[in-house]
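ugh ok fine here u go
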Amino acid sequence: RGLDALSQYSYAYGLKGFEKDSLKAWNLFYESLSEINKISKDLNLRFIVLISPISLQLPYHNKQDKFNLDLSCSTLDPHAKIIEMLKNLNIEYSDPLPIFLEKINTDYNEQNYSQLFLDYDDNHPNAYGQVLLAYSLLNKF
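structure:
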Protein backbone atom coordinates (compact mmCIF):
# COMPACT_ATOMS: atom_id res chain seq x y z
CA ARG A 1 0.00 0.00 0.00
CA GLY A 2 2.96 2.33 0.32
CA LEU A 3 2.83 5.37 2.58
CA ASP A 4 -0.88 4.97 3.31
CA ALA A 5 -0.27 1.59 4.99
CA LEU A 6 0.86 3.43 8.12
CA SER A 7 -0.23 6.96 7.23
CA GLN A 8 1.37 9.53 9.54
CA TYR A 9 3.26 6.76 11.36
CA SER A 10 5.24 5.64 8.28
CA TYR A 11 8.58 7.07 9.39
CA ALA A 12 8.09 6.32 13.09
CA TYR A 13 7.48 2.63 12.33
CA GLY A 14 10.11 2.45 9.57
CA LEU A 15 7.68 1.55 6.79
CA LYS A 16 9.16 -1.01 4.39
CA GLY A 17 10.72 0.84 1.49
CA PHE A 18 11.21 4.01 3.55
CA GLU A 19 13.73 2.73 6.08
CA LYS A 20 16.50 5.19 5.08
CA ASP A 21 14.20 8.21 5.38
CA SER A 22 12.89 6.84 8.66
CA LEU A 23 16.43 6.52 10.02
CA LYS A 24 17.15 10.13 9.05
CA ALA A 25 14.03 11.29 10.90
CA TRP A 26 14.95 9.23 13.99
CA ASN A 27 18.48 10.67 13.96
CA LEU A 28 17.10 14.22 13.82
CA PHE A 29 14.79 13.39 16.72
CA TYR A 30 17.73 12.01 18.71
CA GLU A 31 19.75 15.16 18.06
CA SER A 32 16.81 17.31 19.19
CA LEU A 33 16.39 15.30 22.39
CA SER A 34 20.10 15.60 23.07
CA GLU A 35 20.04 19.37 22.56
CA ILE A 36 16.97 19.87 24.77
CA ASN A 37 18.57 17.71 27.44
CA LYS A 38 21.76 19.80 27.31
CA ILE A 39 19.83 23.07 27.56
CA SER A 40 17.81 21.71 30.48
CA LYS A 41 20.95 20.69 32.34
CA ASP A 42 22.60 24.04 31.63
CA LEU A 43 19.56 25.77 33.12
CA ASN A 44 19.44 23.30 36.03
CA LEU A 45 15.94 22.14 35.02
CA ARG A 46 14.39 18.73 35.41
CA PHE A 47 13.56 17.34 31.97
CA ILE A 48 10.98 14.53 31.80
CA VAL A 49 9.62 13.12 28.54
CA LEU A 50 6.04 11.85 28.53
CA ILE A 51 5.73 9.08 25.95
CA SER A 52 2.10 9.41 24.89
CA PRO A 53 0.78 6.08 23.63
CA ILE A 54 -1.21 5.70 20.43
CA SER A 55 -4.02 3.23 19.91
CA LEU A 56 -1.86 1.23 17.45
CA GLN A 57 0.09 0.01 20.47
CA LEU A 58 -2.99 -1.48 22.09
CA PRO A 59 -4.82 -4.73 21.47
CA TYR A 60 -8.24 -4.31 19.91
CA HIS A 61 -7.01 -1.22 18.04
CA ASN A 62 -9.34 -2.09 15.17
CA LYS A 63 -12.27 -0.56 17.08
CA GLN A 64 -10.47 2.78 16.73
CA ASP A 65 -8.80 2.35 13.32
CA LYS A 66 -10.77 4.09 10.57
CA PHE A 67 -7.82 3.94 8.13
CA ASN A 68 -7.04 0.22 8.40
CA LEU A 69 -3.40 0.90 9.32
CA ASP A 70 -1.11 -2.05 8.69
CA LEU A 71 1.64 -2.68 11.24
CA SER A 72 2.92 -5.67 9.24
CA CYS A 73 4.62 -3.06 6.99
CA SER A 74 6.76 -1.76 9.87
CA THR A 75 10.44 -2.54 10.37
CA LEU A 76 10.90 -1.17 13.88
CA ASP A 77 9.19 -0.63 17.21
CA PRO A 78 9.09 3.13 17.85
CA HIS A 79 8.18 2.70 21.51
CA ALA A 80 11.31 0.63 22.15
CA LYS A 81 13.38 3.04 20.03
CA ILE A 82 12.26 6.08 22.03
CA ILE A 83 13.02 4.35 25.32
CA GLU A 84 16.43 3.29 24.03
CA MET A 85 17.20 6.89 23.02
CA LEU A 86 16.06 8.29 26.35
CA LYS A 87 18.16 5.77 28.26
CA ASN A 88 21.21 6.48 26.07
CA LEU A 89 20.84 10.19 26.78
CA ASN A 90 20.09 9.58 30.47
CA ILE A 91 16.76 11.39 30.15
CA GLU A 92 14.00 10.73 32.64
CA TYR A 93 10.69 9.63 31.13
CA SER A 94 7.14 8.67 31.95
CA ASP A 95 5.69 5.74 30.03
CA PRO A 96 1.92 5.30 30.48
CA LEU A 97 1.68 2.45 27.94
CA PRO A 98 1.68 -0.27 30.66
CA ILE A 99 -1.25 1.47 32.39
CA PHE A 100 -3.15 1.74 29.09
CA LEU A 101 -2.48 -1.95 28.37
CA GLU A 102 -3.59 -2.98 31.84
CA LYS A 103 -6.85 -1.03 31.50
CA ILE A 104 -7.63 -2.41 28.02
CA ASN A 105 -6.85 -6.01 29.02
CA THR A 106 -8.85 -5.79 32.25
CA ASP A 107 -11.85 -4.41 30.39
CA TYR A 108 -11.55 -7.07 27.69
CA ASN A 109 -11.46 -9.84 30.30
CA GLU A 110 -14.60 -8.35 31.85
CA GLN A 111 -16.19 -8.14 28.37
CA ASN A 112 -16.21 -4.35 28.47
CA TYR A 113 -14.61 -1.88 26.13
CA SER A 114 -13.25 1.37 27.49
CA GLN A 115 -12.29 3.75 24.78
CA LEU A 116 -9.12 5.63 25.72
CA PHE A 117 -8.87 7.81 22.61
CA LEU A 118 -11.15 10.29 20.91
CA ASP A 119 -13.58 8.74 18.42
CA TYR A 120 -11.74 7.51 15.32
CA ASP A 121 -8.54 9.18 16.49
CA ASP A 122 -5.60 6.88 17.13
CA ASN A 123 -3.37 9.60 18.56
CA HIS A 124 -5.28 11.76 21.05
CA PRO A 125 -6.43 10.26 24.35
CA ASN A 126 -9.92 11.14 25.52
CA ALA A 127 -10.68 12.39 29.05
CA TYR A 128 -10.15 8.94 30.60
CA GLY A 129 -6.94 8.44 28.63
CA GLN A 130 -5.75 11.84 29.83
CA VAL A 131 -6.32 10.71 33.43
CA LEU A 132 -4.07 7.71 32.77
CA LEU A 133 -1.42 10.00 31.23
CA ALA A 134 -1.59 12.30 34.25
CA TYR A 135 -1.37 9.37 36.68
CA SER A 136 1.73 8.08 34.90
CA LEU A 137 3.38 11.49 35.03
CA LEU A 138 2.36 12.03 38.66
CA ASN A 139 4.31 8.89 39.57
CA LYS A 140 7.50 10.69 38.46
CA PHE A 141 7.14 13.31 41.19
